[in-house]
Amino acid sequence: MKSTKYYNPHGEDILDEKLYGGAPTGFVDFNRSKYKWDSNIYDLMNANTWFPSEVNTSTEKKNFDQLLENEQQIYKMTFAQLSFNDSAQEEYLSDFRRLANNRLVKSVLSLQIMQEVNHSKSYAVLLDACGNSEEVFNLYKHDEALNRKNQRIAEQFARYIEGGSADQMLLSAMASVNLEGIYFLLGFSYIYVLGDKVPGARDMIKFIARDELNTHLPLFANIFRTLQKENSIQTATVDKVYEMIQEAVEIELEYGRYLLHNYPIMGLTEDLIEKTVYNYANDRLRKIGLDTIFPENPDTYLQQLVNKHLQMNSVKSNFFESNVANYAKASIDLNDF
After folding, report:
1. How far is residue 107's CA from residue 8's CA, in Å, rounded to a whole number?
2. Would residue 306 count as lying in a domain?
């Protein structure tokens, strides 16, 4: 075993550590960062640490039992898929972290791993309160569309995770941009559509969505743009990025149409989910510095629901739950290298 993996006194200075490639010393120094965005995102993640026990789920079973049959199915299918997303992301991050050279960026990834585990715990707490935990976590065994979506997401994660070049790391990072920026969003929207009918689920999703969209997505957008800035990325690699986001849109719309056709709920249409997913995909392309390729539409009702719940301090709490009501917000500059 090479001890320089952990400590290299002859390694490059901390301020010279690139995101990909190099020989770091082994130190993590939050007072000296090659980038500004990494420590900013870390501080925002840390400031907004929350735990599922802080969300009131005492009436979740009663509220769930009062839902219409199709609403119950949407609830179960949504949480079955979201729970897979966070489980897969936690494992993927552990592998992706090994591709990174910069130690401070690796530290931010470590904190995100903890948050993904916390999300998995939140699903367990919520579904246990609802009384259908075992059923929901095993739905992939019985529903072909759910299993297919999970499998396709897993394949996209696995495709480039071995790394070996900056181009491969960039494509691997794109898999996470897709996960954080596309695969969660319709699921979040469905729970927000149910809204006050299931306040425990709605409030739990508020905090998960804020983690994903306020810090996790900016983290990987910055990783993507930094890899482009520091390396000569091939045109063919950028073409593959476009192929990956087109595939992500296809995956999300396929599952969305399946739920819509089998478990319709008031207010949701195929046109609405298509416009919503296209808008999210274009926004994610802009965040990573690429041109948009999907039809542009005004913000949809589902986007407005998600944006409404991304606003800070919108979850009420008592004195002993003050951190729930005070989810902090800071500016993350996507051009802040």
Report:
1. 18
2. yes
- Amino acid (one-letter) located at 194: L
Task: Return d(Cα 199, Cα 297) in angstroms, integer.
Answer: 30
Q: Which domain holds residue 152?
A: 44-49+60-317
Rounded to whole angstroms, the Cα distance separating 33 from 15 reads 6
**Letter for the amino acid at 273?**
I
pTM of the predicted structure, to 2 decimals:
0.92
Measured in degrees and rounded to the nearest 5, phi and psi for residue 224 equal -60, -50
Q: What is the reported pLDDT for 6?
A: 86
Give mean pLDDT, residues 302-315: 78
9 lies in some domain: no
| Residue 31 belongs to some domain of the structure | no
Q: What would you report as the CA-atom Rg of the chain, rounded to the nearest whole angstrom?
A: 20
What average pLDDT does this structure show over 234-251?
98
Q: What is the DSSP string of 32-63?
A: S-S-SHHHHHHHHHHHT---GGGS--TTHHHH
Q: What is the mean pLDDT of the chain?
A: 91
Q: Is the pLDDT of residue 330 over 70?
A: no
The structural domain count of the chain equals 1
User: Is residue 312 situated within a structural domain?
Assistant: yes
Q: So which residues are the catalytic ones?
A: 123
CA distance 101 to 8: 13
Residues forming beta bridges with residue 12, ordered by sequence position: 24
Output the pLDDT for position 5.
81
- Token pair for residue 49? 């640490």
| pLDDT 10s digits, 269-298 | 999 999 999 999 999 999 999 999 999 999
Sign of CA dihedral 248, 252, 257, 259: positive
Q: How many residues does the chain have?
A: 337
Q: What is the domain-level CATH number for residue 138?
A: 1.10.620.20
Per the structure block, which two tokens stand in for 119? 């999300």
**Per-residue model confidence as pLDDT tens digits over 173-188:** 999 999 999 999 999 9
Burial class (CB in 10 A: 0-12, 13-18, 19+), 7: exposed
